[in-house]
Design a protein that fits this description.
The complex is a heterodimer. Chain A is mostly beta strands. Helix content of chain A is 0%, strand content 50%. In chain B, the strands form two sheets. Chain B has a five-stranded mixed sheet, with no helix packed on it. In chain B, strands 2-7-6-5 form a four-stranded antiparallel sheet, with no helix packed on it. The chains are: A mainly beta, B mainly beta.
Chain lengths: 116, 112
């Protein structure tokens, strides 16, 4: 149990286009999901907290208009990178926790984004 | 959120026991300690979690002294496949959806 999936696993796009990444909790419901970004040889950096049915909470320095987050159901959160540029190329990872009683976060496999 | 400090890297050989220590001097009463493992181009994987004393599962042990200001992840008889980055995190899991702040992690290299 406690499996989190992401789609796509990797994506290449042209500069200026938008890319949507999905995060799904496959066998549990998640009121809250988290989005991270990781550059090569660096640690994970929290971007935003995705709350089901309400607006996401963004960390300082993360542009909410560039990284659109939607959490429309208890099993799906999406991150849309709008007007992507090469500097947005990174590894994007989501995590989710089960409802009351869960002790930890479970991470998705990540999505590699390359913007040309 | 309590900050954690770990060694940047460690080297070991196959079959040896590896102990990675993490400092978390500002840990709060309700904080739990969680360790994750991350392979390149993969999401972190939960290894073990504890509050105090010792916790053991099929892959690792976690030692936490009485003051809880540090913790040690012990990996018995490592293999080449244990080469990864190991992250120590602390947070209040009792409140539910804890947002995790990752430190630098420890890059473990296991050689033949």
């Amino acid at each position: 149990g406690a499996v989190v999936s992401q789609h796509p696993s990797w994506v290449i796009c042209k500069s200026g286009t938008s890319v949507k990444i999905e995060c799904r909790s496959l066998d549990f419901q998640a009121t809250t999901m988290f989005w991270y970004r990781q550059f090569p040889k660096q640690s994970l950096m929290l971007m935003a907290t995705s709350n089901e049915g309400s607006k996401a909470t963004y960390e300082q320095g993360v542009e909410k208009d560039k990284f659109l987050i939607n959490h429309a159901s208890l099993t799906l959160s999406t991150l849309t990178v709008t007007s992507a540029h090469p500097e947005d190329s990174s590894f994007y990872i989501c995590s989710a926790g089960r409802l009351a009683g869960e002790e930890t976060q479970y991470f998705g496999p990540g999505t590699r984004l390359l913007v040309l | 959120l309590a900050k954690t400090t770990q060694p940047i890297s460690m080297d070991s050989y196959e079959g040896q026991e590896v102990n990675i220590t993490c400092s978390h001097n500002n840990i709060a009463t309700n904080d739990y300690i969680t360790w994750y493992q991350q392979f390149p181009s993969q999401g972190p994987r939960f290894i073990i979690q504890g509050y105090k004393t010792k916790v053991k599962n099929e892959v690792a042990s976690l030692f936490i002294p009485a003051d809880r200001k540090s913790s040690t992840l012990s990996l018995p008889r490592v293999s080449l496949s244990d080469t990864a980055v190991y992250y120590c995190l602390v947070g209040d899991m009792n409140t539910g959806f804890q947002k995790l702040v990752f430190g630098t992690g420890t890059r473990l290299l296991v050689s033949p």
